[in-house]
Amino acid sequence: MEERLLVRGGRSLKGQISISGSKNATLPIMAASLLSSGEVLLNDVPDLEDINVMSDALSILGAKVKREGRGLIIDGRSVNSFELPEYISRRMRASNLVMGALLGRFKEARVAYPGGCAIGSRPMDLHIKGFNSLGYDITEGFGYMYGKEVSARGKEIMLDVPSVGATENIMMAAALTPGTSIIRNAAREPEIVDLQNFLNCMGAKIRGAGLDTIRIEGVKKLGGVEHSVIPDRIEAGTFMVAAAISRGDVWIENVVMEHLQPVVSKLSEVGVEILPWSGGIRLIGKNHYKPTDIKTMPHPGFPTDMQAQMMALLATIPGTSVMVETIFENRFMHVQEFRRMGADIKVEGRAAIIKGGELEGAIVESTDLRAGAALILAGLWAAGETEISRLDHIDRGYENIHEKLKRLGADIERRLVH
């Protein structure tokens, strides 16, 4: 027995939906709470499996974590361990983010290599390079990374690529490291800005997040804080595509438009009408769209986390579109599942050539988090019934996505099947 999603296509989505707090902002902020000498209250925390795993990780380290409605209370004063074991690390990629926080707090850390979606190589070399620059000696072996202070001091760090995880990890380690640390070629995602705001509210001295150079003045202590997490731009983008692919009319609340400009631009390019609306945006789908070409890039470029969802839309648009994936080498695993639904997509290296047309319902498998969301979107358009398995991937990053879609008029249900 396993749970599957059944989607019957052909219905235009209409109505109003509110976006949850950002998963990708919450996870590093939860890790950073390990640096606090007081109690942390986070608001707008989504109810997701990845959040549960990070809560378990913090608890294993000794923190007290309590969920209250949409809030999360984390008391890290009782943290008494700097080691995160393999059985928890393998459950989630973001588990590696505790490394920087543990080094900052204890000047020592032992963390198993993380798991997560198999969308491509996401090595820890940039993280390790940053930690080494700050004066922490990092050794690797038996599936673990072990770090210990040698001569911790602020330093200038040049990232080879603007890695989000490395930027966040280095920021956390540097916050309590004496001296001035400078991260050049830093990632610029909104989640980096949210982490900076959280750390600064605790007493850190960080500036430059959102730009390619971040400066961190090390402080001796960080206190407790209350912080509201930013809205999830990828969930918002997913519902924007849902409105577009169903040729619907949807008002999306709790959205920061500035975080979504690349998605807004490409949806407008294909012909979706997008209007600023009170407290959010309104998406009005059309019967006729134009194909387009998209290339994923680090922020502020088109996000790789929206690639699969946008490909679902392009697969319904007559003509030829091209999707180029520059971030992860394995992020076209959903193409085979789209083909089961009748999509005409050819992959050449890091480019997918999409000849849009009709889709038919089929039995498909969610190969990773965003691929799962994309299959739901394709099912909204496809003729007949689409049955999606491996919902564990989807549950990692979307809070009751089927219930939200149902409220907009989708014919979708989650049920146990043999």
From TrEMBL:
Entries under SUPFAM superfamilies matching the protein: EPT/RTPC-like (SSF55205)
Gene3D superfamilies: Enolpyruvate transferase domain
Metabolic or biological pathway: Cell wall biogenesis; peptidoglycan biosynthesis
Binding site for UDP-N-acetyl-alpha-D-glucosamine: R93, R122, P123, M124, D125, L126, D305, I327
EC number(s) reported in the record: 2.5.1.7
Molecular functions per Gene Ontology: UDP-N-acetylglucosamine 1-carboxyvinyltransferase activity
Keywords, ordered alphabetically: Cell cycle, Cell division, Cell shape, Cell wall biogenesis/degradation, Cytoplasm, Peptidoglycan synthesis, Pyruvate, Transferase
Catalysed reactions, as listed in the record: phosphoenolpyruvate + UDP-N-acetyl-alpha-D-glucosamine = UDP-N-acetyl-3-O-(1-carboxyvinyl)-alpha-D-glucosamine + phosphate
GO cellular component: cytoplasm
Top-rank taxon, per record: Bacteria
Gene Ontology biological-process entries: cell division; cell wall organization; peptidoglycan biosynthetic process; regulation of cell shape; UDP-N-acetylgalactosamine biosynthetic process
Residues that, per the record, bind phosphoenolpyruvate: K23, N24
Active site feature: C117
Xref: InterPro entries: Enolpyruvate_Tfrase_dom (IPR001986), Enolpyruvate_Tfrase_sf (IPR036968), MurA_subfamily (IPR050068), RNA3'P_cycl/enolpyr_Trfase_a/b (IPR013792), UDP_GlcNAc_COvinyl_MurA (IPR005750)
Sites of 2-(S-cysteinyl)pyruvic acid O-phosphothioketal modification: C117
Keyword Cell cycle: yes
General function of this protein: Cell wall formation. Adds enolpyruvyl to UDP-N-acetylglucosamine.
Family affiliation: Belongs to the EPSP synthase family. MurA subfamily.
HAMAP family from the UniProt entry: MurA (MF_00111)
Name of this chain's protein: UDP-N-acetylglucosamine 1-carboxyvinyltransferase
Organism per entry: Syntrophomonas zehnderi OL-4
